[in-house]
Specification:
Layout lengths: L26 H26 L9 H21 L11 H25 L8 H31 L5 E6 L3 H11 L6 E7 L10 E2 L2 E2 L4 H9 L5 E4 L6 H11 L5 E4 L13 E4 L2 E4 L9 H35 L5 E7 L5 E7 L24 H8 L7 H7 L3 E3 L9 E2 L2 E2 H4 L12 E3 L1 H4 L9 H16 L3 H16 L6
Parallel strand pairs: 1-2, 1-5, 5-6, 11-14
Antiparallel strand pairs: 3-4, 7-8, 9-10, 12-13
Length: 491
């Protein structure tokens, strides 16, 4: 570990904890204020829409509109809480905040529309008012969160939210924890140094620029002086009796006490901690997009696919006629691809190559100037129209609108099979493949003639899987429009 040996320099023991000013504003208070503000913005945007459409809203029905606005505010607050809009990681990351915010607002709007339809009361409300409310609310929520995130970042840089913390245990485990804390800019912790009962040379007197102040009794005295807000115990979990003794002493003091993970857990520090009954366990790998998320994503796929088909069906008809007139052979091309859980399925595409040269096994990816591609095929490949029949794969459930692009099992990068190049290649099959994906809109589409191109594509696919949300899907679909208008690496 960086600095592990050199940091253990000889120096005079420091016995006095510096008098660092405590956090000026609790971050929890700021998050509570954000919750209240965004609830009021939902109500306020509904009121603005009422004012703009006051001419068409009857006075007798005003109470129904007000009840709908208030109900939407409560529903938004509930959904936002459930999906983590107010979690710590969303307070300093605008991308995460916007994704969760738009998802919450979109789900609220969708629930209201569905409820009004099922209760047969949608005709009693102005569509213009509802649309104005949805747009105004989205703009107000996005704008306020952007301003708040910038402000919170600025306050964080000045240490406004930092709690004064020390680590009990200056061994390898404590030193690794100190490196982690100081290397993580999302934490609101001002790390002052270490305490440790061992004074026999087994622990350093100073680690980097962090001193070892003294023993557990010295720590208790410093807490009594009001110099410390938080203690993180970083002792090996095998030393159970020693941990109990230290915690028993610290439990009598009015500070937050936390137990750091054992050394092996640092390899999985980014994994979430959950409760198995009353026992905390690390979730090393989770089935992504499961449970309620899977239902939401499937509903998203079906609804959006039907809407897209309702708009583009003339393009499908014209393309089918053009293919038939251009060259002999079927309109569609079916090819085995690897899907969810490595299961094979037949992907459907418009045929873009001469019929006798189409490959279903031992597949060679299309290259620039490929002689197998027909005249119509060159156009539909360049504009991605050849992929549109995969909307039927989406309706069937083999694919999603957004996800890692499906590959044929025999395709290669620089002469090697994909799974031979990247060890984690199979992890992209933990979700359904998609018609478009994060890798594609970021420019990693088309031919993977080098191993580096494949690695970049897999890296983006895994990022999508780990960070999926409805908002992320909608953002990718929006980016896809521009990727199709100005195509790169499509031939």
């Amino acid at each position: 570990m960086h600095g592990m040996t050199s940091a253990m320099t000889a120096a005079a023991p420091v016995t006095r904890v510096p008098a660092v000013e405590e956090a000026k504003v609790p971050l929890d208070l700021m998050v509570f204020i954000i919750r209240v503000l965004e609830f009021l913005l939902v109500l306020g945007s509904g009121a603005v829409a009422l004012y703009l459409w006051s001419d068409v809203i009857p006075g007798s029905g005003l109470a129904d509109y007000l009840r709908a606005i208030f109900g939407a505010g409560l529903l938004f607050a509930l959904v936002a809480e459930i999906i983590g809009t107010y979690d710590l990681d969303a307070q300093f990351s605008l991308r995460r905040a916007w994704q969760r915010l738009f998802t919450s607002w979109g789900m609220t709007a969708l629930f209201l529309v569905t409820t009004a339809f099922l209760l047969k009361v949608s005709a009693e409300f102005s569509r213009g008012w509802a649309l104005t409310w949805f747009v105004t609310g989205g703009v107000m929520l996005a704008g306020s969160r952007a301003a708040l995130t910038i402000w919170l970042r600025r306050l964080k840089r000045h240490g406004v939210f930092d709690s004064r913390a020390v680590i009990f245990g200056a061994g390898e485990q404590g030193q690794r924890l100190a490196d982690y804390i100081r290397g993580n800019d999302r934490l609101t912790i001002s790390l002052l140094g270490f305490f440790d009962d061992r004074r026999d040379g087994r622990v350093p007197v100073i680690f980097g620029d962090l001193p070892v102040f003294g023993t557990c009794d010295d720590l208790v005295a410093a807490i009594r002086e009001g110099l410390i807000d938080q203690v993180i115990v970083a002792l090996p979990w095998s030393a159970e009796e020693r941990i109990r003794e230290v915690v028993a002493k610290l439990a009598l003091t009015p500070v937050r006490i936390r137990l750091a993970p054992d050394l092996a857990s640092f390899a999985f520090a980014h994994r979430p901690l959950v409760l198995l009954g009353d026992l905390p366990v690390l979730t090393l790998f989770e089935r992504p997009i499961s449970g309620t998320d899977a239902i939401i994503k499937r509903a998203e796929d079906v609804i959006l696919t039907l809407l897209i088909l309702a708009v583009i069906w003339p393009v499908l008809v014209v393309t089918a006629i053009a293919i038939k007139l251009d060259s002999p052979g079927p309109v569609f091309f079916r090819q085995p691809r690897e899907g969810f859980n490595n299961r094979l399925f037949e992907v459907l595409k418009f045929r873009s190559m001469t019929h006798e040269l189409c490959e279903t096994d031992g597949i060679r990816q299309a290259t620039r100037g490929d002689k197998r591609v027909t005249r119509v095929g060159a156009f539909i490949r360049r504009t991605s129209i050849d992929e549109l029949p995969q909307l039927l794969n989406v309706l069937k459930g083999d694919m999603s609108l957004v996800g890692p692009r499906p590959h044929a099992p025999s395709t290669r990068a620089a002469g090697r099979l994909f799974h031979e190049v990247v060890q984690t290649y199979a992890a992209r099959h933990k979700v359904k493949p998609g018609m478009t994906g994060w890798a594609q809109v970021c420019g990693f589409r088309g031919e993977t003639d080098t191993e580096d191109k494949l690695r970049k594509r897999i890296e983006h696919d895994l990022h999508y899987i780990e960070n999926w949300s409805v908002g992320f899907d909608l953002y990718i679909l929006f980016r896809t429009i521009f990727a199709v208008i100005a195509p790169k690496n499509a031939f």
